[in-house]
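assembly run, all chains below
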Amino acid sequence: KAGVTQTPRYLIKTRGQQVTLSCSPISGHRSVSWYQQTPGQGLQFLFEYFSETQRNKGNFPGRFSGRQFSNSRSEMNVSTLELGDSALYLCASSPDRGLSTDTQYFGPGTRLTVL
Amino acid sequence: QQQVKQSPQSLIVQKGGISIINCAYENTAFDYFPWYQQFPGKGPALLIAIRPDVSEKKEGRFTISFNKSAKQFSLHIMDSQPGDSATYFCAASWPNTGNQFYFGTGTSLTVIP
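ok done. output:
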């Protein structure tokens, strides 16, 4: 099975712009979560989508949004970019069999740099 | 507010030595505690995980020790190898909340040959 894929892998934007990142989960996985990884903060949960619905949301401003399509692929969008948004954005998919201990499988991430 | 606190930030160990990384949590509702390993340029990968109903879990050279009363858990890497050099993250999640995990800030492990 192919792993979680994320596109693009690298992105450079300027302040005020918006960006859309894409994630394709492992085939058959229904849950997709997004995390922001920065050196000082580690991984911080952004949101989780399941069956095209946002199931959980972390403590991020409304500039961060996402969606999930019927094929479980997901996108996240960041509007009005700020310098502090520079980070590695990770997507993780899970089969979500109703078990709280279901493994999350992470993609390689999209490295976003805001200038 | 960091729900899971991890230490140390970095660790250097000789080959064959024991690497120990510690995590502490506040919320007693957490019921699942995984450890992830991340190599440069890669996403984190699940290494080993534990539920609070057991005090220890071992998989090969990796062991999780769990102290429910102290709200602490740790990762022990026995016979550390240069290939173990990576960043390690502890995490925690609540039951029945889907896939929302709270991660520690990470520990950069370097194993010297």
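Chain B touches chain A through 29 residues (CB under 8 Å).

Chain B is about 0% helix and 55% strand.

not gonna interpret more than that til we talk
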